[in-house]
Fold each of these.
Amino acid sequence: MYGQFLLANYDRCPLAIESGDGCHIVDETGRRYLDMITGIGVNAFGYCHPRITAVLIDQAQRCLHTSNLVSHQHQQRLAEKLCAISGLNRAFFSNSGTEAMEVALKAVRARSTPERSRLVALRGGFHGRTMGSLALTGQPDLRQNFVFPGADITFIAPNDRAALHAAIGPDTAAVALEPVLGEGGIYPLDIEFLQDARQLTQAAGAYLIADEVQCGLGRTGKYFAYQWAGILPDIAITAKPLAAGLPLGATLFTEDAAQLLPPHSHGSTFGGGPLACRVACEVLDMIDEVLPRIPELAAQFRDRLEGLMRRHAVIREIRSKGLMFGLQLSQPGRPLVDAALKKGLFVNCTQGYVLRLLPPYIVTEAEMDETVRILGEVLRGADTRASPAIVPQ
Ligand code: PLP
């Protein structure tokens, strides 16, 4: 029955969700599943966290929505907090990661000239599916049929410093990158690559845009993953876990970049509403508390996954940064995702051959053990044909 009236654009798992609690989801028959992808990184505190539910209910009883014709304390407080943790100076709120990227692109466009309009992005990068963000997305299968011709974009391989040096010049308007490529298969960028990107853009008078939609807000063990390299971009975007599942994206600017979007240059009906902003303030307080524990949680999970790799040759490589894990397989991942689901574990496959885990920040050691136990069962007997090239080409 499901899907009859819906656009057939998603390749969904055979799972209809009724509810969730902690790291578990419950389907319509009452069966529980351990969820290690948690809304593709959105539910950083799992399902129905009592702190989130409490502020949600309280705010719903006060005010769900006001327009941006007026102000409210939650938007102001959230902007202040995001600026404090990012090192940037001003925030604009929208409804998704894609939109947050579109706003960044508008700012870049506003300072482009015919002599300086070229963008640089990464092969395998993902920045959204609307026309601007898609143009920057370095995945040919997603671009095919949809990208408007004309945008001048140079795509280079992640971590190829020579290509980065060659790509950035006086005609570069901006470089956009995910400090850890997520949809592309979990590729952390090297510190030196990020530092080069910052130095070269600065020297060339170009902007650096950090897409932190998947890797930001504590997931790697820092508030923002660019902070591992000790750099500050001109613009950063964030979304996914920001409002615990309510649609909210943020574009963060330096004071200089913020000048590019003066009054009337951009806006959003829903962006920055009181409900989402109030919940996001609570999420950021919760991230403050959990952040010091993320590296240890990440190491505990990684240890267990490395044990799994030693027992199963079908795992060729584990790439991770904090609580982002990519298990590079030598066989397609989707059958394994389906098999894991049958055993009560929900994980995801990206790029055909990468099992992706984005566990919530509340994951326990017992839940890590259970994940690895079920993955071990489904990997047993998986074949070990050669995997495709490890680095996105
Ligand atoms: N940027 C990155 C790095 C993402 O991972 C995503 C979504 O997966 C987006 C942008 C787009 O965000 P949204 O789906 O909220 O529009």
Note: Residues 40, 96-98, 101, 126-128, 178, 182-183, 211, 213-214, 239 surround pyridoxal-5'-phosphate (CB under 6 Å).
Amino acid sequence: MMKMMSEQTSKGTLFVVTGPSGAGKGTVLGRALPAIDKIHYSISATTRQPRPGEIDGQSYYFVTHDRFRSMIDDGALLEYAEYVGNYYGTPVAAVDSELNAGRDVVLEIEVQGALMVKQKRPDAVLIFIIPPDFSLLEQRLHSRGSEPDDVIARRLEKARSEYQSGDRYDYIVVNDVLDEAVRELTSIIIAQRCKTEKRIDLLR
Ligand code: ADP
Ligand code: 5GP
């Protein structure tokens, strides 16, 4: 007999949104996520200084190097990476409690960390966000105005190598017209939720 789908039929899906700095990860997610139900945005820990307007515990958990080191030693991070002079990492406990409760989780992280997640959690869905043209990265980073020129230059250098792992992702979202990129990302998340393995209980 057919069964109603229970609230907690299966574990949630881990979505990893990555891509070079300036591609628009934060902007696209900021628009897409409020319209998607039962999805949890993972807050990372970082040793970077807060930018004006960033709030501890909302944008990031801003921690000292010593604290970050003990999180690594305690196995408290699903992945971490050093990125242009600072450390960034994903606290694993919150991710797993959300996934176990049947909610999808989104990580917004750089490329090395994304590949580390895919190794540890092969079921994770990796989404690479890029602008339609590489030169737009520089324009967008300058227009965001959050980093000095030398940091922008280092982020762009990093972006060149990040593009080389692009073929290891499950999806590529092109962030040209913002609404279209939001639609692409939302469609990927919805399609994943429609996979048979996520709905098999409905057939029992
Ligand atoms: P990321 O999180 O990948 O580093 P952001 O979301 O901060 O990138 O976007 C970088 C800059 O580009 C921001 O100033 C943002 O307003 C701008 N931006 C994002 N998406 C678009 C878009 N589709 N068209 C034009 N500018 C964009
Ligand atoms: P920003 O300093 O611009 O906030 O972030 C720099 C880069 O670090 C971005 O690409 C961002 O997605 C990435 N990042 C943020 N949190 C994490 C994390 O927990 N792990 C990893 N590996 N990268 C992260």
Note: The first helix runs from residue 25 to 32.
